Amino acid sequence: MSHDHGLPPKSSVSRWFLTTNHKDIGVLYLITALFFLVFGGVLALLFRLELITPGADLLGQMGYNQAVSTHGLLMVFWFISPFAFGFANYLVPLQIGADDLAFPRLNALSYWLYLFSGLLMGVSFFQGTTFAGGWTMYAPLNTPAYIPGEGLGATSVVLALIMFTAAVTLGSVNFLTTMYRMRAEGLRMRDIPIFSLSINLTVWMMLFAFAALLAALMILASDHILGTTYFQYSIDGTTMATDADNPGASLLWAHLFWFFGHPEVYIVFFPALGVMAECFQTFTGRRLVGRKWFIISMVLVAIQSFVVWMHHMFLTGINLPIKTIFMATTIGISLPFDLMVFSLIYTMAKGRVRFTTPFLFSLGALILFIIGGITGVFLGAIVLDYQFRGTYWVVAHFHYVMVAGATALFGGLYYWYPKITGKMYNERLGQIQFGVYFLGFNLLYFPMFIAWETPRRVFVYPESLQIWHSMATVGGFILGASFLLMFYNLFVSLWRGEDAGDNPWAYATSAEWAVSSPPPLENFPGVPSYATGKLEFLDDETVAERTERASGAGHGHAATDGGTAADGGAVTTRAAATATAMEPAHETAGEEHASHASFWPFLVSLGGFVTFLGLSGVRTGSVVYLSMAAIGGLVTFGSLFGMTREPFHAPEMAIAERWPFSSVEKMKLGMWTFLASDIVLFGAFIGSYAFVRVAYGWTAWHHDLIPAEHVTMPGLINTYLLLTSSFLVVLAMVAAERESKRGTVAALVGTFALGVGFLINKGLEWQHLFHIHSEAFPNGWNLSTNIASSTFYLTTGLHGAHVTIGLIICAYMAVRAWNGAYQGDDRAIEYFGLYWHFVDIVWLFLFPLFYIL
Amino acid sequence: MPSFVLSHTAAVFPLHGGGVRAPSEVFAQIFEVFLLLGTAVGVVVVAYTMYHALKYRDDGGADPYADKVERPQMGEMPTGGSGGRKVFYSFSISAIIVVSLIAWTYSQLLYIEQGPDPAQTDALEIDVEGFRFGWEFAYPNNHTTNTLYVPQDRVVRLQVTSRDVFHNFGIPELRVKTDAIPGQYTSAWFTANETGTYEAKCYELCGSGHSLMIAEVRVLPQDEYESWYNGTEGSTGSGNQTAANGTETATESADLAAPTASAAPAATAGGVGA
Ligand code: HEM
Ligand SMILES: [Cu+2]
Ligand SMILES: [Cu+2]
């Protein structure tokens, strides 16, 4: 049954660079995230050391600011979510009965992008100074004008975050597609184990929230690298001046950031909630009380999380009605959490509660979360929030909630350690660690409530508060020490631990415990099914029988994992019909030779890393940086191409529960989800434009900032070009369906030509605008001229980049069509069409906004 | 509701902030109630949690509930356990507490937002501008200082902005705080019932000197303030890095009762660089 398909054994280093298996990648995520925990933790200990007395100066002013800023960024982005996604990678397929994620190579790509983004973050420390403007990165302090020195480190951090966001977006697309297309027979969405459900809701939030963050970061990166002026103030000689050039700048950032930032707190917390619920069920021997309402609460929170962001901005001068609405939504969103907390508490009733390490951590997390939640209600009362804003109250509050989440995740690490390693950790030592951890945690964070009058992110504070800050510092070191125990325990147990067996925990129910520890490469001894209401593993015959009954066809669809979603996804979709036709007829999907190894994801990410490192310094004109950007770009592009050419097989499951997307093939579903996040990306760009324009004055904008030479005609021509090209894509589909090779090629070439026409026209238009010499604009109208030119070039430029990517895919498909592909199976063209139509529709919004209004 | 009553009684003492309920009192009262209730709720819920955890702990003996409850089985389809009603009761209680608490604070929020009736109190209008790394205060006569002077028992209304990056202006003891945003104006008010020296601090990270961005606030008896103020007529007394700013006259609009962020500050910003 076991096929290795070129994957070396786990003892071999090369396996870890090649693997696309979800369990391997889960382990990689866990270890990498723990590394960033240590990184962020050491920074925290450094500045806690400085805070031990009111006036110490250990790190220097900028050193202190860098330490707090990068600590926040590392913990929120590079530690906590990736740690949770280590579990998600390992367990979601096991829990829902899939043999891997829907797009295994994409999953590997997510991981490598994540790792390299973190490395880029690390490199930023060596480029003079790293980012020092707080994890919230408020504008305009986040722009080069306010960053001492060359500011290249700060640029690297912004680029690292972009890379991280790319990883998250690919991951979201992947998990959503997996969960909607690959559930074991009989497993409805609401039936999947609570941890997987929490991940499902997390990735939905990620898909949209990170798109908003991506918009913010792209704009910021453009301010850094291209010289746009979204977040800047006009430069008056050498200083920045308060004139009215771009009065919306600061608030624009705050809105974009918190629109992401609030959902982010639930993105961080939901997986932890899932782990807590799993541990509670197992270690109390009770099913989750009110499970249905627990799930409904989570869904409500996930939706509502997008309408509370302004509670981080109560003091920015928003008017009373809006404040009232956001106060109401904030309180509203806290209520479902009450329900979840009580659900967990009552789950213990009539239970067989065993105080194992995972349960201790889960229970501890619950208690910490209760305290964090109560102190959050304080913040929801606006009159109190006014005073708490920017103080240690907020710091204490969010550590009690966020680090409560981390606490639950450490519980998860102990809980699943036997599954992942096959060995049992030392229980006694685990319990001791919990004791030290819990003590350290409370000694660290509780005094912050008492010393709440301390302003946040300062290193001098009133002497009267010294005792509390000293206590906190001691607590911090105790907390840190507890991790040494954990690392020791988990490391030594790899050799000395007892064999854990398949299921070391009484009352565990989910499917990961029904297989060996660690599970085999293909996860299950047969095809998992819940059709009878209980987990069974079907043999090949039963599967064949059932598929036959269901579809009349001998076997399920097979499609290849098609490159990245970002490059249009559809690139290499090998016609499923062709693929399956080549398989021996008796083979069912479970037996098809799934691929598990690819080196390309690593190479793509390495290339991305070099490119971004280069980009961080291009504004200096340094040859080193420029050549890094060029070489990195080549590597990235080349390896993306290699990835699309590589035959990689990720079979669809023969039988699976697929509601509500049973008729949406997985590539298409992936494309849909990706486009959904792209809509938010463009939405955020368009929203930003509207916001800064309103702040400036809608009509004055046109008057003051836009040259007369900026006419409608080029835009109008481009509108026609794009619309016609969309029509041609439809023709290409029709031709492919009718198996007319010539028609397909002609239509694709036509699409390509029109797209190129679009770009040329745009190039001419820009060239003209760059070089106008009018009285109002003696030096042309370029990216840095004013805020109107910045929004124009950047927004339409982002669209142009989408067109360019589309054209690359289109050219590739035209060549393949020439070689006879797609005939009789137009699905790949359809997926490309989805993307292309989307790009056209975006233009239909941009054209009036930037040319007419 | 008491805040409304109080704000109306303020009308009895026109021209004085002494009878006005100061923001610091409002804060102290709400904070106290929240602390008491929050601690009570916290203690009860945590105790309740621990009670469940300990009461139902597995002591190694036989399962005492073996005939009452069914334990989860390996491979079963996830479902909910019994006891949902208790969850709802507890949830309802907590929801009532939270919602009523917040609703109660809302009336006080309205008071803080609107401030005492401007027609009844002769509020002193001061412009505040943050810069890296200090504060500049402009009085109605365009005099500017880096120390904030205010009279005792008088309502002070601040119009706050920033010259460079995002700051946040707060005087912790007087419980007044608002963001200082470049290109935007926000407003806040307070009244100080005791004379003395206080500190104004920055509550938003703004760069290397953020930790030290502190200004002195002097609350003077009314007559002393008057004589200080009269002595400043027509002059600009602060350091040269701020001198260019003496032209700001945003305070002329007397009625700032409804705090609004100036969404079109192009109209209000007097510019250094202009
Ligand atoms: C009872 C539910 C909660 C309420 C009512 C609440 C309320 C608030 C409010 C109003 C703020 C803004 C404070 C300010 O800057 O003035 C805040 C900050 C914050 N909250 Fe919560 N919160 C709750 C739960 C959570 C949860 C579950 C998390 C994360 C797991 C969380 C994480 C944060 C973070 C990270 C911040 C600080 C952001 C920053 O300024 O850096 N909160 N909370
Ligand atoms: Cu929030
Ligand atoms: Cu500051």
From TrEMBL, chain A:
Keywords: Electron transport, Heme, Iron, Membrane, Metal-binding, Respiratory chain, Transmembrane, Transmembrane helix, Transport. Belongs to the heme-copper respiratory oxidase family. Residues 10-531 form the Cytochrome oxidase subunit I profile domain. It comes from Haloarcula salina. InterPro entries: Cyt_c_oxase-like_su1_dom, Cyt_c_oxase-like_su1_sf, Cyt_C_Oxase_1, Cyt_c_Oxase_su1_BS, Cyt_c_oxidase-like_su3, Cyt_c_oxidase_su3-like_sf, Cyt_c_oxidase_su3_a-hlx. It comes from the Archaea. Coiled coil: none annotated. GO terms for cellular component: membrane. This is Cbb3-type cytochrome c oxidase subunit I. Its main location: membrane.
Automatic annotation (TrEMBL), chain B:
One of its GO terms (cellular component) is membrane. GO terms for molecular function: copper ion binding; cytochrome-c oxidase activity; oxidoreductase activity. It is a multi-pass membrane protein. Gene3D superfamilies: Cupredoxins - blue copper proteins. It is found in: Membrane. It comes from the Archaea. Residues 228-274 are annotated as: Disordered. The chain crosses the membrane at residues 27-48, 87-106. The keyword Transmembrane applies. One of its GO terms (biological process) is ATP synthesis coupled electron transport. Residues 121-231 form the Cytochrome oxidase subunit II copper A binding domain. Residues 229-252 have a biased composition (Polar residues). It holds the Pfam family COX2. Keywords: Copper, Electron transport, Membrane, Metal-binding, Respiratory chain, Transmembrane, Transmembrane helix, Transport. InterPro entries: CcO_II (IPR045187), CcO_II-like_C (IPR002429), Copper_CuA (IPR001505), Cupredoxin (IPR008972), Cyt_c_oxidase_su2 (IPR014222). Residues 257-274 have a biased composition (Low complexity). Belongs to the cytochrome c oxidase subunit 2 family. NCBIfam families: CoxB. This is Cytochrome c oxidase subunit II. It comes from Haloarcula salina. The gene is coxB.
